[in-house]
């Protein structure tokens, strides 16, 4: 696992020890950023099921100003912090150990809007539609912002959720990437 492009291109990232997380492969990560970028001029990203932090770190490396990382697993939080330290991105990030529902409630109270939200929940616990509805109902995504969902190919997401419409959808083996844009 590594940073694919941008400021920290080629820098290796640590994976979360054990089998509790499923890291996004470099091939899929590169494809995601080719679809949504590939480079950015500022903005705020949310990596909601951050795991090792690879998606949020890639976003910062490619020009996103700041990223918030959330995961409920203690080992994942430790790994994110180590990866951010290795990339020298600690000043451009916030890391929280929390479940997704509580994290979204806390973010709603802060009245933050994101340019990019990455949703890569464990395949057995996916509740993507509901989470996107909460995000949109509480204005957590800026206009023309994108929600990147990584999910099992057997999960079929609707083409529209509220004012978010499917921008692109690609299949990589048993993984599907569905990207919504908020209009």
From TrEMBL:
Compositionally biased spans, kind Basic and acidic residues: 1-10
Descriptive protein name: 16S rRNA (Guanine(966)-N(2))-methyltransferase RsmD
InterPro entries, per the entry: DNA_methylase_N6_adenine_CS, RNA_MeTrfase_RsmD, SAM-dependent_MTases_sf
EC number: 2.1.1.171
Superkingdom, natural source: Bacteria
UniProt enzyme class: transferase
Keyword Transferase applies: yes
Keywords per UniProt: Methyltransferase, Transferase
Region (Disordered): 1-25
Listed Pfam families: Cons_hypoth95 (PF03602)
One GO MF term: 16S rRNA (guanine(966)-N(2))-methyltransferase activity
